[in-house]
Amino acid sequence: MLLYQKIKDDILNNRLPVGRPLRQVELSDRYGVSRIPVRDALLQLKAEGWLVPHGKAGHIIPDLNWQEAEDLYLMRVDLEPRLFSYAFEHIQADDIGRAKATLALLDNARLTLLEKGELNWAFHKILYFPANRPTLYKTVCSLNQQASRYLGFQYGPMNYKDHSQKEHAVLLELIESGDHSSALSLLKKHIKDAGQLLVSHLKSTN
Fold first, then answer.
1. pTM of the predicted model, to two decimals?
2. Counting Cβ atoms within 10 Å, is residue 125 exposed (0-12), middle (13-18) or buried (19+)?
3. Cα–Cα distance, 66 to 113 (Å, whole number)
4. What gap in Å lies between CA 63 and CA 108, rounded to an integer?
5. Exposed, middle or buried, 150 (CB in 10 Å: 0-12/13-18/19+)?
6. 100: which residues sit within 8 A by CB, 6+ positions away?
7. pLDDT tens per residue across span 107-136
């Protein structure tokens, strides 16, 4: 596991403190590496929305925030179905095969929260990439990098994985049958329902 993934995993599992400045020297000691890879990992995590600036050169882990979660799912529900619609007629049999293999991996009970979130995005990415719309694809990738901290939360404390997996399987069936309209509707519902549930949960715990 790469250093920035180890830090992500510790964030998801509350092994690093929310709201307290992360010091390079402390992280260097914690992970047994020099300060250079720590600095690079922190910059990448900041770019992906996992950390926010603090002070002159520091970073902190932000709280899970219902407004941020709402903004992310609203943007996703607008952009991902559009990208998926462009991709639909270009999805090939081996794309379906890779998507099914990814779903099978997601059923492994030993996965970490980080791995669950990454595999969830890997599934969707397989279905979006054939669109050949690089600018839109890059934007959707960025949104999902920011949302992955919340997706890991959904697959953990909210125990949403089984429901999500069932919808993933139905989505593949609709693609295989060529039912563009139903597949598009299901994807919109899939993103919207999960997002609304997460926002409601975060509001109730604040």
1. 0.84
2. middle
3. 19
4. 28
5. buried
6. 172
7. 898 888 788 888 999 999 999 999 999 999
